[in-house]
Amino acid sequence: MTFEGKAVLVTGGSRGIGRATAAAFLAAGARVAVNGRSEASVAQAIEALGNGERLAAAPGDVATAAGCEAAVGAALEALGGLDVLVNSAGVFERRPIAESDEAFWDATMDINVKGTYFCSRAALPALQDSGGCIVNLASIAGLEGYGGVTAYCASKGAIVNLTRAMALELAPAVRVNCVCPGVVDTDMARLGFSEDGAPRTDLDDQAEFHPMKRVATAAEVAAAILYLASPDAGFVTGAALPVNGGVTAGGH
Length: 252
Ligand SMILES: NC(=O)c1ccc[n+]([C@@H]2O[C@H](COP(=O)([O-])OP(=O)(O)OC[C@H]3O[C@@H](n4cnc5c(N)ncnc54)[C@H](O)[C@@H]3O)[C@@H](O)[C@H]2O)c1
What we know:
The chain is an alpha/beta fold. The chain has 2 domains: 7-181 and 217-243, 3-Layer(aba) Sandwich (Rossmann fold), CATH 3.40.50.720; 183-215, no CATH class. Helices cover 44% and strands 13% of the residues. Helix 1 crosses helix 8. The relative contact order is 0.15. Nicotinamide-adenine-dinucleotide binds next to helix 1 and helix 6.
C-alpha cells in the first residue's frame, strides 16, 4: 500500500494510535502533519518519528473550533493540501454518572466529538479539492454500552453516527469512515484502566473479554486506518469497521 506524495493530518498524533498511524503513513511514503495539544508534545513526537522533511507540526487543542482551525491551518500551510484526515485525538475516563459533573461531560464531548466535527469542517475544502477522505476513531464503546463510562460511550456512539451522516453529505467527493477498536495497548488504556492513578503494567484482565484473548497493538489499528484511507477502500464510505478481536461479533 503506497501513499507516496499524499498529505495526511493525524490529530492526536503525538501518542498512541495517532502516533502509530503517523508512523505507518510515513512508512508508506506520505507527508504527515502531526497534531497534539501542545507544541512541545508535537515536537517530541516528530523527533520520535525520526524527524525529516515529510513530517510537519500541526499543534492545536481540538476541544475548540479555533484550535481545530489552527491545527488544520498549520497542516495545510506545511503540506500545501490534504488527502487524508485522521481524527484520533480523544480522551477516556471511567466515571460513574453520579460523579460526573458538567465539566467532565463537556471535556469528553468537546475533545471526542466536537474536535472530530470541527477538524473535519476545517479540512473540508482541501479534501474536496483532492477527492480525499476522513477516518475517525470510534470504539467498541460506540457500538455497545458499557456501564461506568457513559460519557465516553455517548461520545463514541456520536462518532459512529456522525461518520455515517458525514459520509452521506460529502459523497461522492469525500469518503468518511471510522474504526471501532477494542482495548488497545496505549497510555489511554494503561491509565484509563488503572485503579491507583499509576499506569498499568499489564492489561491482562482487559485481554480476557476479547474473543482473541489479547488487546490490540496501536499498529494493528493503524493498519485498518490505512486500509480505509487507501484506494483499496474506494467504494467504502459510512462504514464503522470493528477492529476489536471479535468483541462486537456477538455471542456474549
Ligand atoms: N486505547 C484504546 O483502548 C482505544 C480503544 C478504542 C478507541 N480508542 C480511541 O482512539 C483514539 C486514540 O486513543 P489512544 O489510545 O491513542 O490515546 P492516547 O491517550 O494514547 O493518545 C491520545 C492522543 O490525543 C491527544 N489529545 C487529547 N486531547 C487533545 C486535545 N484537546 N487536542 C489535541 N490533541 C488531544 C493526545 O495528545 C494524544 O496524542 C481516541 O479517540 C480513543 O478514544 C482508543
